[in-house]
Amino acid sequence: MVLFLIVGCTLSSANEIKDIELKQSDILIKKLSLEKKISIKLFDQDYFFLAVSKSSIGNIYALDKYSSQILMFNEDGRLIKRVGGSGRGPGELLIEHNANLIACRGSIIVYDWSLPRLQIYDENLDLKDILNLEGIPYEVGCIEDEQIIILFSNRNLVQKMELNGNIEKSFSFDDSQPFDLDIFKRIISYEETLFVSYLFRPVLFRWENNAMVERVTLPIGERDSIITATKNLSLVDSSLHVFFYNLGSTKTKDKRKIGHVFSAISTKYKYSYYVPIYINDFKILTNSQLIALEDTLSRISIYDYKIQ
């Protein structure tokens, strides 16, 4: 049984927010070059991977929606273990809407949008702990010193928590703040700075000391685009990658998906690069490697990359 001690605060709407609008003329396009190192495609059944990650020991982990299982592959792409299944018991997932997993400081953290808990595995996919939460975790981010940050779906609440369940900080947002959880997508932390992206808004928010301080509007190449989405955030060293795309754009397909790179220190825009249309989702792992989901989220690929 874990005893939570919460010290909370509610943010005031009086915070002054700096607005930064990136225009199309500001965009510096660099070339993304990819060299595929590993390609994983299983044919024993249908798969639909909601999330994929890679641990410090080189194992690859994928969360399959159809089976509600977590699959583990070795660094050569061979399937070596699968755990889980549909349900509410230990190690099971109830994927009615969505689910996610992240590799964090030697642990694999798994959660779904139906159960108020985090399931924590070691890198061999042995279940270590189950943390019962106050609400449904919408998004979990890995930060320093075996800590995580959690956004809850049923209220404007963010908690900074240790992996043993102890809450270090808890804060919430006024309704007056533009923080619509229905379209919230990703959260990522750099030192004491928190970045938040939205699914159907081309916007990136920067938070410091529990207050929103900057709002960056990403450029949309064609204003007749009917669907825009900020797919994910990746952080490598002090560079923040924002994967953004225009699904409804009349642009040629090879220019619909784009990565924008910012300094995580200052939010200064650095450059952008087009992402191949066959990549459904990806995460930047290091300065030279990324992991991607392809073939309508049924194939996992590891690439060496260069941006020039």
Describe the 3D structure.
By secondary structure, this protein is mainly β. The chain has one domain: Neuraminidase (6 Propeller). It contains no helices and 27 strands. It has a 5-stranded mixed β-sheet, with no helix packed on it. Strands 2-20-19-18-17 form a 5-stranded mixed β-sheet, with no helix packed on it. Strands 3-24-23-22-21 form a 5-stranded mixed β-sheet, with no helix packed on it. β13 and β14 form a beta hairpin. The N terminus is likely disordered.
List keywords for this structure.
disordered N terminus; about 0% helix; mainly beta; 5-stranded mixed β-sheet; Neuraminidase; about 300 residues
CATH structural class: Mainly Beta
C-alpha Rg, in Å?
19 Å
Gap between N and C termini, in Å? 52 Å
For the sheet with most strands, the description reads:
5 strands, mixed
Number of helices: 0
